[in-house]
Amino acid sequence: MSEDIELDYNDLIQEAQKRAYRFLMRDVLKLVAELGDAPGEHHFFIEFLTGAPGVSIPDHLKEQYPERMTIVLQHQFENLTVTDDEVGVTLWFKGKEARLEIPFDAVTQFADPSAQFGVNFDVSGPENDEDGPADQPEAASEPNGKKEAADSDDDTAKQEGADIVSLDSFRKK
User: Which residues contact 23 (CB under 8 A, 6 or more apart)?
Assistant: First the structure.
């Protein structure tokens, strides 16, 4: 029976890298939660599948972004919680407070433009439409009315495994 099994080291390496990048994302967010704010100029773009198992977002956001959504964590978030499996955060959208709970397995992209770091995760599931553009929030704002826009460039290539992505997809145009 063991004669029929082939070890595909390329696939094994890709899976190991994907897990390592997810652990890195989790550890960075845990540090931010401990500090209470993103240090220095660091800020984070997190794109996720809104319909993935375990994702909890308000209905009005799910209606507006039925497939994907990108949130920005900079100076305008509260109650950041990080477990081994998910991140939770309170944000404001058009002045309305919203609590989001996002399993790390639902995250499709994570970037810190200030460090010129970004990673793209291949996420399997019914919500992962490779041909369609990602839905993006118009803005997340805190109660004082400041807005933090999350713009996207549809040219970001979706690739297998965890790959570094171009930060151009997160820059305002």
Answer: none
